[in-house]
């Protein structure tokens, strides 16, 4: 395990705790490694060697960063952008281009503030309900590196999009279960239940009103899931217009076909502009939602029409509707499978025939199904559950089969071109897709269980104690999986906690060696060792994800099989077994249902709190900062991709400023901001890239993105970026749980990594640090002396790469 290995003494430099920049084991050094290549050119240590103006463009990481905090000045001014994302400077630096000689000692500093893209508005707390969609979208980008496996890559993309489509069907079916089955069919059709709910009085079967007929109640209740799908369609459309409609610069140079040149995908001009695929998927998923509602209505009326004595005319119309729904569903699947993303160019075209006709046809079929169901049927009463109580089981089986197929495709890709440090042998994408399905199932089951519990009053839903049969049996079986999963997760956490203690014990012997000449302090040593050991737990995340996903797939299949093999009567899922087994099974089911319901309530509570509390909203914003970096390629109802706004912003700023001034620019990114900075540099044309240097610190580019997204941030892609930008340095610490080294292969030229930096800067009290120095971990990299040193060296190197500027000239055209 990466978090428990101890470095060999031969690999260490600078004492027992020092080590080379390529290693990042948690029980290694806390001292800063020297620069990889000696700097003996005077210009590389003197920022005044070049008279051109220099600019440092700061890009913050996750969380609610402010321009005042980034620039360490309360008086700032926005020079470009808007309230959502903008470029800020100190007030006294606003006209820096007019007086470049005042900035010969240090660069002009700008801050790009993008935190409002994810955590600015309180309504974004509702994005928590879209969490499964966001997770399955990540699975698309986690595919292994492909080498001469174009067909398998297409199959991988199709399978992820089909899993995403199943999540939309699952969400719609869950809302139909709550609105149509539990509320309109079961509760409104039972006098004991509807009598306790005054708002259901007009629909109550006991009152005999116009809306009391089962078909009319169902048709009216179908408005709720229909409104939800329409809201998701509108939200997807509006967020794309606000976030992802930013045009690329059009200056990105891609010579020939990508496969022929081997250029990274993030260099392509259409990578951050996926209008066509989002529009197609939005139309397909909207149609799928409408068709799911129509199918539920047709199943309800069809059961009555097809029994002996039913209406032949209505039965014939029902069969015609079923055939039309099946044909429309086939068209939806075809649209989802037919075309994926197009990245070689910014695709502005829209398939208007598909984007308009498909959801329109589905909505028309839904209206026909509602009219057919609401048609008067004397003698029709609602008893039991709605037909189709195995729908959730079919969805679960379909999702499991798709995940298995996705795993086979991922294994084939990984074996064709294995990449070192890829988690789970290339199965990270399928594991994340399985996690998305599990989250969707928990949310669906939680909503059904809590609503049934509320409608049933004091009785336990599904146990035959109250007036309502309750939700489908399969949801109770799936809920019984939750305690087993939680127990397995607890065992894993205990194991890794024990491993952390082992690493901490090893570090206790080596931490003081990084601070020679200072008196040992056991308490201080334990604190530093604990922080380093906990930071190494990040590298154990693949084992947790893999174990939980595999167990979820196995137990989920057993739950579906148990629901189908036992009685379909609620409350009898565990009957027929010995007393102890039966009691244990019912206890696990009850506990699981409680966990599912509580989890759903906590999700809603957290969303409501985030709507009111800015601090909680920033916490949720951090989740979206990590999860919504990638464009919507699999699910159109996922939260919007903020990078499709941020990357063009940064690219346009770097290109326009260097063209206008002919100066040098260092784009300085912390944490997630370093990923945005690298993505923006990838989009620059070669002429602009010669004027730009990249400084990253606390960066997850390799530690997280390089491992989990090897097709886009793998060793080959990072090596290509280093070869094109020339000037790149990366700062990192062992105490940082997120950032790490870049780990470029040997022989790639100038070393990128600078570290590990010493943290804390002082072990005890010194003249320079009269108070105990804090352990900074992932924060405050700019306070380290190495930051200023590396920035100065990058600016000096840029002066060597850039052409000589004639005396008195200020623009690139004269440079």
Write out key terms for the chains shown.
Rossmann fold; mainly alpha; disordered N terminus; 815 residues; disordered C terminus; 26 helices
Question: What does this protein look like?
Answer:
There is one protein chain. This protein is mainly alpha-helical and about 800 residues long. Among the domains are: about 10-110 and about 640-815, 3-Layer(aba) Sandwich (Rossmann fold); about 150-165 and about 380-610, no CATH class. It is about 50% helix and about 5% strand. It has helices at about 65-70, 115-120, 130-140, 150-185, 190-195, 215-220, 225-245, 260, 275-305, 310-340, 350-375, 390-415, 430-455, 475-480, 480-505, 520-535, 540-565, 580-610, 615-625, 645-660, 670-680, 685-690, 700-710, 710-715, 715-725, 785-800; strands spanning about 55-60, 75-80, 85-90, 110-115, 665-670, 690-695, 730, 755. It has an 8-stranded mixed β-sheet with strand order 2-3-4-1-5-6-7-8, with helices on both faces. Helix 4 (about 150-185) crosses helix 9 (about 275-305) and helix 20 (about 645-660) packs across helix 21.
Total count of helical runs of at least 4 residues: 26
Low-confidence stretches: 1-49, 252-261, 568-578, 806-815
Q: Into which percent range does the helicity of residues fall?
A: 40-55%
β-strand amount? 5-15%
CATH topology of the domain at 9-112 and 641-814: Rossmann fold
Major β-sheet profile: 8 strands, mixed
CATH architecture of the domain at 9-112 and 641-814: 3-Layer(aba) Sandwich
Q: Write down the oligomeric state.
A: single chain
What is the distance, rounded to the nearest whole angstrom, between the alpha carbons of the first and last residues? Answer: 52 Å
Number of strands: 8
Outline, from the CA principal axes? globular
Transmembrane segments: 125-143, 155-175, 218-235, 283-304, 316-337, 357-375, 395-414, 426-448, 477-498, 543-567, 587-607
Organism: Streptomyces netropsis (Streptoverticillium netropsis)
Keywords: Membrane, Transmembrane, Transmembrane helix
InterPro entries: AB_hydrolase_fold (IPR029058)
């Amino acid at each position: 395990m990466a978090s428990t290995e101890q470095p060999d003494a031969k690999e260490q430099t600078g004492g027992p705790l020092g080590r080379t920049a390529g290693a990042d084991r948690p029980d290694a050094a806390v001292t800063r490694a020297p620069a990889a290549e000696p700097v003996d050119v005077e210009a590389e240590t003197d920022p005044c060697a070049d008279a051109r103006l220099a600019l440092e463009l700061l890009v913050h990481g996750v969380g609610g960063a402010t321009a005042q905090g980034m620039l360490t000045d309360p008086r700032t001014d926005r020079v470009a952008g808007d309230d959502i994302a903008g470029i800020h400077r100190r007030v006294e630096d606003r006209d820096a281009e007019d007086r470049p000689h005042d900035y010969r000692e240090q660069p002009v500093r700008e801050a790009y503030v993008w935190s409002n893209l994810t955590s600015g508005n309180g309504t974004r707390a509702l994005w928590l309900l879209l969490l499964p969609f966001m997770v399955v979208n990540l699975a698309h980008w986690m595919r292994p590196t492909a080498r001469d496996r174009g067909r398998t890559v297409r199959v991988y993309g199709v399978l992820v999009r089909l899993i995403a489509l199943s999540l939309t069907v699952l969400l719609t079916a869950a809302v139909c279960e709550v609105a149509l089955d539990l509320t309109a069919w079961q509760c409104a059709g039972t006098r004991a239940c509807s009598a306790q709910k005054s708002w259901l009085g007009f629909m109550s079967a006991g009152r005999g009103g116009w809306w009391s007929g089962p078909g009319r109640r169902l048709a009216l209740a179908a408005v709720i899931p229909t409104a939800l799908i329409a809201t998701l369609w509108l939200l997807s459309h509006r967020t794309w217009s606000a976030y992802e409609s930013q045009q690329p610069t059009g200056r990105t140079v891609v010579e020939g076909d990508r496969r022929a040149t081997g250029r990274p995908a993030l260099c392509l001009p259409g990578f951050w502009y996926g209008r066509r695929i989002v529009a197609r998927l939005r139309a397909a998923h909207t149609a799928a939602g409408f068709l799911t509602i129509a199918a539920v209505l047709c199943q309800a009326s069809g059961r009555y029409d097809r029994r002996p004595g039913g209406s032949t005319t209505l039965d014939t119309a029902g069969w015609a509707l079923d055939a039309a729904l099946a044909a429309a569903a086939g068209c939806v699947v075809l649209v989802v499978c037919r075309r994926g993303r197009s990245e070689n160019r910014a695709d502005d075209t829209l398939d208007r025939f598909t984007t308009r006709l498909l959801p329109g046809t589905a909505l028309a079929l839904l209206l026909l199904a509602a009219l057919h169901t609401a048609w008067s049927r004397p003698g029709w009463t609602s008893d039991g559950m709605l037909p189709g109580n195995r729908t959730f089981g079919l969805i679960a089986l379909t999702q499991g089969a798709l995940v298995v197929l996705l795993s086979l495709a991922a294994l084939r890709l990984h074996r064709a071109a294995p990449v070192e440090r890829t988690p789970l042998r290339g199965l990270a994408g399928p594991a994340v897709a399985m996690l998305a399905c599990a989250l969707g199932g928990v949310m669906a089951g939680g909503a059904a269980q809590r609503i049934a519990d509320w409608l049933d009053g004091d009785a336990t839903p599904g146990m035959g104690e109250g007036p309502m049969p309750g939700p489908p049996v399969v949801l109770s079986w799936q809920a019984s999986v939750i305690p087993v999963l939680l127990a397995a997760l607890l065992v894993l956490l205990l194991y890794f906690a024990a491993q952390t203690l082992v690493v901490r014990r090893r570090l206790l012997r080596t931490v003081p060696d990084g601070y020679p000449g200072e008196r040992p302090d056991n308490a201080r040593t334990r604190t530093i060792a604990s922080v380093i050991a906990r930071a190494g737990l990040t590298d154990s995340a693949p084992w947790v994800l893999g174990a939980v996903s595999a167990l979820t797939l196995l137990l989920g299949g057993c739950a579906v099989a148990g629901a189908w093999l036992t009685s379909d009567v609620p409350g009898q899922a565990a009957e027929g077994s010995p007393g102890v087994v039966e009691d244990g099974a019912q206890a696990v089911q009850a506990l699981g249902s409680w966990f599912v319901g509580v989890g759903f309530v906590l999700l809603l509570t957290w969303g409501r709190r985030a709507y009111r509390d800015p601090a909680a909203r920033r916490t949720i914003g951090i989740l979206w900062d990590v999860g919504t970096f990638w464009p919507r390629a699999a699910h159109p109802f996922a939260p919007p991709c903020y990078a499709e706004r941020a990357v063009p912003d940064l690219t346009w700023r770097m290109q326009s400023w260097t063209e206008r001034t002919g100066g040098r620019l260092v784009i300085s990114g912390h944490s997630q901001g370093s990923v945005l900075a690298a993505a923006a540099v990838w989009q620059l044309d070669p002429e602009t890239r010669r004027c730009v240097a990249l400084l990253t610190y606390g960066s997850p580019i390799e530690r997280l993105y390089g491992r989990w997204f090897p097709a886009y941030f793998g060793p080959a892609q990072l090596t290509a970026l280093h070869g094109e930008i020339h000037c790149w340095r990366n700062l990192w610490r062992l105490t940082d749980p997120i950032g790490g080294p870049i780990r470029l292969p040997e022989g790639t030229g100038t070393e990128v990594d600078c570290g590990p930096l010493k943290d804390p800067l002082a072990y005890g009290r010194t003249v320079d640090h009269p108070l105990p120095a804090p352990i900074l971990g992932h924060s405050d990299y700019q306070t380290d002396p190495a930051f200023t040193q590396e920035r100065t060296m990058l600016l000096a190197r840029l002066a060597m790469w850039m052409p000589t500027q004639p005396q008195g000239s200020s623009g690139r055209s004269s440079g």
